[in-house]
Every structure is written in C-alpha cells, then in structure tokens.
C-alpha cells in the first residue's frame, strides 16, 4: 500500500497494491498498522478505525458537506462500485488551513481511498450511474450530533464537477444550500 500526500497535509490518499490477472483482482484495502504508521510519520495522531458505514447513491447525488462536533469522525473513504468526486474541507476554527478543501476522484477502478481527518467536513458527488461507498470511521455515527454545510458556499468555493446540472440533494442537504 502507498500513502500519497495532498495539498492539505492532514488529508491523505491511500493507494493499495492491486494484483490482477484474467480471473479478477485482489487488493488489501486496510491494515491498521500501516494506517497508524502513515499518520505518525507525518506528525499526525494515530487513530483507530471503529465503524464501517456503507452508502449507495445514484448519479448526480451530492452528499454533504457533513461533520460532527461532539464526536468528530475521521473517515477513510473507499468506493466499491462506480465513481465519486470526494471532498474534504478543513473547518477547524483555529487551523491555518481553515476553509481550504481537497477533492479527488475515487472509483472502483482506481482503488484510491481518501483519509478525511476529524474536524473536516466531508461530502461527495456521484459521477457514475450509481456508487457504493464505504466509510471506515474513527468514532461512531451520531446523527443528533451531525451538521451540514452548504455544498455551494462561496466561503469554500468547491469546484464540484457538475456538468450544467444541479445536483440531487437530500432534504437536509437542500436546507443547508445557498443560492448560486
């Protein structure tokens, strides 16, 4: 497995080694010791991942930008089917990189995984017909503690790969949206 740094030092991309032949492929998607070492080697706090969550979304669905305050979750995001544009936004008030964001295409084909640290908002936009996404989290999902930022906030100016269409939003995400 390989750890790739992004424009934001704490947001990392993990690329597993894939072994394939005419029968299919095999890859190791997670190893706690490698994950912890990758964080420690960059001066970051090593964290344990305690819960897997799974979602399926159709094309043009935009999820997030979600975050938890009392129980901030770090998330290792992986796509099992399809492709998404995955986004991490630094919303930690005292951070030197507050308001900065990183986005990457994650897909079942490229096998990339993105680490979204605790204190960052997370969202994604579905590029394929549908996408199956697994989030491996550092804390348990606490729906009463979850907040949503406007996906189209001028403060963050995320360059979503929309092709002249408006995204499909959940009711909760739509209430957080601002006009473009």
UniProtKB/TrEMBL annotation:
SUPFAM superfamilies: RmlC-like cupins (SSF51182). Keywords: Isomerase. One of its GO terms (molecular function) is dTDP-4-dehydrorhamnose 3,5-epimerase activity. Its EC number is 5.1.3.13. InterPro entries: RmlC-like (IPR000888), RmlC-like_jellyroll (IPR014710), RmlC_Cupin_sf (IPR011051). Pathway: Carbohydrate biosynthesis; dTDP-L-rhamnose biosynthesis. Signal peptide: none annotated. The keyword Isomerase applies. PANTHER family: DTDP-6-DEOXY-D-GLUCOSE-3,5 EPIMERASE (PTHR21047), THYMIDINE DIPHOSPHO-4-KETO-RHAMNOSE 3,5-EPIMERASE (PTHR21047:SF2). Homodimer. Belongs to the dTDP-4-dehydrorhamnose 3,5-epimerase family. Catalyzes the epimerization of the C3' and C5'positions of dTDP-6-deoxy-D-xylo-4-hexulose, forming dTDP-6-deoxy-L-lyxo-4-hexulose. This is dTDP-4-dehydrorhamnose 3,5-epimerase. The gene is rfbC.
């Amino acid at each position: 497995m390989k750890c790739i740094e992004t424009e934001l030092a704490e947001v990392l991309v993990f690329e597993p080694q894939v072994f394939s032949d005419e029968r299919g492929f095999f890859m190791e998607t997670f190893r706690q010791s490698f994950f912890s070492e990758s964080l420690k080697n960059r001066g970051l706090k090593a964290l344990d991942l305690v819960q897997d969550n799974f979602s399926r979304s159709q094309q043009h669905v935009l999820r997030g930008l979600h975050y938890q305050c009392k129980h901030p979750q770090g998330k290792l995001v992986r796509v099992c089917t399809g492709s998404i544009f995955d986004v991490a936004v630094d919303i930690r008030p005292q951070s030197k990189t507050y308001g900065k964001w990183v986005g990457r295409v994650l897909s079942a084909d490229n096998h990339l995984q993105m680490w979204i640290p605790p204190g960052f908002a997370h969202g994604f936009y579905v590029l394929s017909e549908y996408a199956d996404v697994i989030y491996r989290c550092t804390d348990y999902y606490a729906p009463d503690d979850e907040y949503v930022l406007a996906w189209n906030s001028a403060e963050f100016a995320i360059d979503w790969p929309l092709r002249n269409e408006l995204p499909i939003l959940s009711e909760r995400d739509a209430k957080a949206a601002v006009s473009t």
